[in-house]
Design brief:
Blueprint (H helix, E strand, L loop, with lengths): L3 E7 L3 E7 L5 E8 L11 E2 L1 H19 L6 E8 L4 E5 L9 E2 L7 H8 L8 H4 L8 H11 L3 H6 L3 E5 H9 L9 E3 H4 L14 H7 L8 E3 L2 E6 L10 E7 H8 L8 E5 L3 E8 L10 E6 L7 E8 L3 H9 L9 H6 L9 E3 L17 E3 L7 H27 L6 E4 L6 H11 L3 E4 L4 H13 L6 H7 L2 E5 L5 H16 L11
Parallel strand pairs: 1-5, 5-12, 9-10, 13-19, 19-20
Antiparallel strand pairs: 1-2, 2-3, 4-7, 6-8, 11-12, 13-14, 14-16, 15-16, 17-18, 20-21
Helix pairs in contact: 1-6, 9-14, 10-12, 12-13
């Protein structure tokens, strides 16, 4: 009987279950999108119950398509949108509010309040993160302060918090019937509450935020058996043995296990992760210090991360809000109708600017417009925005690490766009490399789970699975590269200082 690993990829726009074989190849996939809820400008929510319902359904889809049962599955791995916060009642399993998504900016007032004593970097030496609406901690505070009765129920020990990995794990292992309330170090490192050195929740920081410690999940490694799937599931009694936040999972799936290795994921947002090994490197250039992974009892590996809020979601915006295209892949065809951006630059600061600026007061801008600019130029400017933002982050990584990256491994949905990948290589002036298995996020979670149960022996076996599919090499005059980038930096300045007290 052939054995497999199944990964649950709970992402920002959809939930997937992917079955992998021993070579790291995809056997089958189940996928369902969930609703994107926008109650007000800057607010982004998901329905946690819909996410859990979809999770159960996509597991069934993946098993059915692969024509296998739970008896063929050695372990389950989970990967997830990291900072999205769910708070629910441990006695009923009911969320007290919708999940507040990582893109949501409603907590700016809380960030400002916490920043009054010590500024935005008040806790950065301990947790590796600046105070920002991006991270889960302020979202918990908002729920406690704005949902009727939530504070009292939390202090009575009735409410639990988790990022979506924890929500899926708790439900998968039984929910109110003995569900495991845990997370891994990579997700814990995105809350603002975890000490990077001790890998434990900081009581003093929780006190400042006013979050009861009883709400928080137990912090575990990224690769160990957390529990088994509940008897009510198609995967009953299968061990759940791997958890990695989506960007760390993609890094793991790219086999970037060692210091100096890096990857860039092109998804809803873009996330460049640079492995710093067992050393905690504190950024001086606007990057985050985060956990890379921790395998069982082994030493943790750390990383520098450049987080970009809006890349693939800009293409969705052009499709859904403006109707400029009917499907996401059409963006490449439209952009290819023109030779260049026509002088137009699109800075998609819809949720402010993340790395390396961390400016929540920024808002999106399309600048450099003349009568000459057409929809092809706008499509091209949207794609180029992804590449320019990646260059800004990679410049920061090079400055912090002191070791210039010589090639960039890429993954995520947008890497199917050849025009974007070529422009990325051109603007970075380094080769861009795409692997054969592009679903590296789910693959990373599968690897973590498989290692824990002995399905794969060690990291060397995983390295041997990685194969190059495509490579783009730079082909742009250096003077033109400098001109384009200079104008991009100028465009960024036009987005700043937009949000006032009466402008959201």
């Amino acid at each position: 009987m052939t054995d497999y690993i199944i990964a649950i990829d709970q992402g920002t726009t959809s939930t997937r279950a992917i079955v992998f074989d021993h070579s790291g190849s995809i056997v089958s996939t189940g996928q369902l999108e969930h609703d994107q809820i926008f109650p007000k400008a800057g607010w982004v929510e998901h329905d946690p119950k819909q996410i859990w319902d979809n999770t159960r359904e996509v597991i069934g889809q993946a098993l059915s398509k692969a024509n296998i049962t739970r008896h063929n599955v050695k372990a389950v791995g989970i990967t997830n949108q990291r900072e999205t916060a769910v708070v629910w009642d441990k006695n009923t399993g009911e969320p007290v509010y919708n999940a507040i998504v990582w893109q949501d900016t409603r907590t700016q007032g809380i960030v400002d309040r916490l920043s009054e004593d010590g500024g935005a970097e008040r806790f950065k030496d301990v947790v590796g993160l600046p105070l920002s609406t991006y991270f889960a901690g302020t979202k918990i505070v908002w729920i406690l302060e704005n949902v009727e009765g939530a504070r009292e129920r939390a202090e009575a020990g009735d409410l639990l918090f988790g990022t979506t990995d924890t929500w899926v794990l708790w439900n998968l292992t039984g929910g109110v019937d003995g569900g495991v309330h845990a997370t891994d170090v990579t997700n814990a490192s995105r809350t603002l509450f975890m000490d990077l050195e001790t890998l434990e929740w900081r009581d003093d920081i929780l006190d400042v935020f006013g979050v009861p410690k009883s709400m928080l999940p137990e912090i575990k490694s990224s690769s160990e058996i957390y529990g088994t799937v509940h008897t009510s599931s198609l995967l009953r009694e299968v061990p759940v043995a791997g958890i990695l936040g989506d960007q760390q999972a993609a890094t793991f799936g790219q086999a970037a296990f060692d210091a100096g290795e890096a990857k860039n994921t092109y998804g809803t947002g873009n996330f460049l992760i640079f492995n710093t090994g067992t050393e905690i490197v504190k950024s001086k250039n606007g990057l985050l210090t985060t956990l890379g992974y921790k395998l069982g009892d082994a030493e943790p590996h750390y990383a520098l991360e450049g987080s970009i809020a809006v890349t693939g979601s800009l293409v969705q915006w052009l499709r859904d809000n403006l109707g400029l295209i009917k499907s996401a892949p059409e963006i490449e065809e439209l952009a290819a109708t023109v030779e260049d951006n026509g002088g137009a630059y699109f800075v998609p600061a819809f949720s402010g600017l993340f790395a390396p600026y961390w400016r929540s007061d920024a808002r999106g801008a399309l600048v450099g417009l003349t009568r000459y600019v057409n929809k092809g130029h706008i499509a091209r400017a949207a794609l180029e925005a992804t590449a320019f933002q990646t260059k800004e982050v990679l410049d920061a990584v090079n400055a912090d690490s002191g070791v210039p990256l010589t090639e960039l491994k890429v993954d995520g949905g947008m890497i199917a766009n050849n025009l974007l990948m070529q422009f990325q290589a051109d603007i970075l002036d380094v080769p861009v490399v795409r692997p054969v298995v592009a679903e590296t996020t789910a693959l990373g979670a599968a690897y973590a789970a498989g290692l824990a149960v002995g399905y794969w022996a060690d990291l060397d076996e995983l390295r041997a699975n990685w194969q190059e599919d495509s490579r783009w090499t730079p082909d742009l005059d250096s003077a033109e590269r400098d001109r384009l980038y200079r104008n991009w930096k100028k465009a960024v300045t036009k987005t700043l200082d937009w949000v006032d007290d009466d402008v959201q």
